[in-house]
Amino acid sequence: MESVRTRWWPLPVILSLCALTLFIIWTRDVPARADRVVHTVPALAISALALLSWLLFFSRLSRSVRLASFAAVVALSLGCVGLLRITGVSGDLVPIIDWRWSEQDRSAGGGSQALTSDSSGKLPFRDFAQFLGPDRNAILTGLKLNPDWQAHPPREVWRQPVGEGWSAFAVQGGYAVTQEQQGPLEKVVCRDVRTGKVLWSHGDSTRYETALGGIGPRATPTLDGDRVFTMGATGRLNCLDLSTGRRLWTRDTLADGGRQAHWGMSSSPLIIDSLVVVSAGGDNGHSLVAYDRLSGARVWSGGDDSAGYSSPSLAHLVGRNQILIFNNYAVAGHDPVDGSVLWRYPWPGGVSIQCVAQPVPLSADRVLVSSGYGIGSKLLQLVAHQGGDGIIPVPVWESPRLKAKFTNLVVRDRSVYGLDDGVLVCLDIDTGERRWKSGRYGHGQVLLIDDLLLIQAESGEVFLVDADPAGHRERARLAALSSRTWNNPVLAAPYLLLRNDREAVCYELAVTELAHGPGWPETQTRVRTGARESTTQLAGMDRHPDTAYLSDRAL
Questions:
Q1: What's the average model confidence in pLDDT over 219-241?
Q2: Cβ atoms within 10 Å of 105's Cβ, excluding its own
Q3: Does one domain contain both 97 and 216?
Q4: Would the CA dihedral through 126, 127, 130, 135 be positive or negative?
Q5: Average pLDDT rounded to a whole number, residues 481-495
Q6: Which of 189, 196, 452, 523 is in Cβ range 3.0-4.6 Å of 201 for a Cys bridge?
Q7: What is the CATH number of the domain that holds 265?
């Protein structure tokens, strides 16, 4: 009896078709790099199904070989399911795979403890008391960083495990406060900036988790006077005592008319005089909500848009104060007095587009807005309606060359810098034309310190890059963290605080403070490198009595 020959030819055909499909997916032009991952998954799944079908039904291999091969495939699949787990995705939706037993205990521990000053009674660093810094724009003024990290390397001060979450630190008077998930508790945790030691923590029995977005709170605390204001991923707004963590009041913003955002509530509270303003995202005038800072009583609400993933910020535009917010379907300006919507500009893309980056006020009547997912940036001019109080937003230019998916934009000298689908880009602010594009940092975050961009890459590395429209130039790099990092960096000079969903680290940087006093030239500086300090000044010039220095800041 003649033996049946094995049918091998479908195997190279399937593999070739798979390779060709992947080549097309990864070489063709797409609006966003994440689209390639989205298309790769079904291509691989279909190819795997075709290979399995060939093996079982069309290969003509012996029954024993087919059954043994199928059993091996099943065993390998079960082994992968049993030993590995998907802990989330990168900014480009690439799955992050880890061993199931690698989960670490991230309990913050610690009870309420007093924070004491050093022997001089002073704490030599600046505050960074809210999301994106003092002006909520990711720009720090009056400071310079020494970019020579070979001669003056960042000194690691402390490193500690933290719970999951994408919150950043807020720093005031030596207290460094962040939010993190620890098991069933969503916690606000306060650490000593200089040691990383937990001073206190406050927990709420709530947990936010999605397979793609990860676990834990997203918003950054806001520190104001003796109070801490936090917004949890499920909409809980807390007011805590800064020194002890004792809860002073709490509000459920979703029960107040808000609506849960798909990726978790991400609004970092904004303090305006006696008000605490958050993006709650709800119909019937509950999009933006203000509460009384002292009592927690609701003062006003306004707007009907669902919440995006930006935070409210205060700007003076068209002759009046406005609260800017990037909602899920539109960017809007609200009246801080009563929350009424002053203007609204619909954002393209609908429900599939996630709006994250902060709107950037550029002048008395212009706002820059950007998103990822193939949309890009738009410069809006706000035009006051003649004969009335209305404001009309009019596009000045549009550009697909800067698509800020996660990263907030920073502006310096008529240039805007940001990560375009993970690659650093510089645009001309007046025309929207691209000046350069270089340096792949993933979906990280950016701070502008004088003429340097401090970039927290998605990989966990930190880079210093010149903020120069002439071209891309890296000055230094630091392997600070070693896994996916979406959290914003914080520079409470000279301390750089970084964290992701696994650990936090604090470095001391070589920082120069520019002295700004009445009639005082900007050439006088205070230099701090590690534990060493020296005062640099021009010959014949004395220290100006009205100038504040980092080392003169008392607790």
A1: 97
A2: 9
A3: no
A4: negative
A5: 95
A6: 189
A7: 2.40.128.630
In DSSP terms, which residues pair with 490 in a beta bridge? 497
Both tokens of residue 59?
């290969």
Residue with tokens 């410069």: 379
> What pLDDT shows up at residue 169?
98
Q: Which domain holds residue 246?
A: 170-309
- CA-based angle 427:428:429, to the nearest 5? 105
**What secondary structure, in 3-state letters, does 326-344 show?**
ECCCEEEEECCCCCCEEEE
Strand pairing of 139-140 and 445-449? parallel
In this structure, is residue 95 part of a structural domain? yes
**Unique residue bearing structure tokens 């009595």:** 545
Q: Which helix (H) or strand (E) holds 74?
A: helix 63-83
Q: Of 291, 309, 327, which one is at a domain's C-terminal end?
A: 309
Residue 516 pLDDT greater than 60, yes or no: no
- Is 276:291 a contact under the CB 8 Å cutoff? yes
Q: Which residue has the tokens 């890459």?
A: 457
Q: CA 342, 283, 166, 173 torsion: positive or negative?
A: positive
Cα 373 from Cα 29, distance rounded (Å): 13
- Same-domain status, 89 and 139: no
**pLDDT-based confidence at 100, cuts 50/70/90?**
confident
CB 225 within 8 A of CB 212: no
Tell me whether residue 266 is in a domain: yes
In a domain, 336, yes or no: no
Helix axes 34-53, 10-27, angle to 10 degrees: 170
**434 touches 422 (CB < 8 A):** no
Same domain, 136 and 74: no
- For residues 419 and 443, the answer to whether their CB atoms sit within 8 Å is yes
> For residues 199 and 548, which has the higher predicted lDDT (pLDDT)?
199
- What's the pLDDT score for residue 525? 30
Query: What are the tens digits of pLDDT across the range 394-432?
Result: 999 999 999 998 899 999 999 999 999 899 999 999 999
Tokens matching residue 276? 């605490």
Cα–Cα distance, 39 to 142 (Å, whole number): 47
| Residue 255 and residue 160 share a domain | no
Distances in Å between the alpha carbon of 94 and those of 89, 124, 213, 503? 5, 42, 12, 21
* More reliable by pLDDT, 72 or 271: 271
Please tell me the distance from the alpha carbon of residue 111 to that of residue 181, in angstroms, as a whole number. Answer: 17
pLDDT digits (tens, 9 = 90+) for 125-172: 789 999 999 999 999 999 999 999 999 999 999 999 999 999 999 999
Closest CA to 105 of 180, 162, 169, 166: 162
> Please, are residues 407 and 450 in contact by the beta-carbon 8 Å criterion?
no
Q: Is the dihedral of CA 340, 167, 272, 312 positive or negative?
A: negative
Average pLDDT value for residue range 201-229: 93
Instruction: For residue 532, count CB atoms less than 10 angstroms from its CB and return exposed for 0-12, middle for 13-18, buried for 19 or more.
Output: exposed
What's the chain's average pLDDT? 85
Count of domains observed in the chain: 3
234 to each of 107, 163, 215, 302, how far by Cα in Å?
21, 17, 11, 20
The single residue listed with the structure tokens 């719970």 is 163
Partners of 185 in the β-ladder: 182, 205
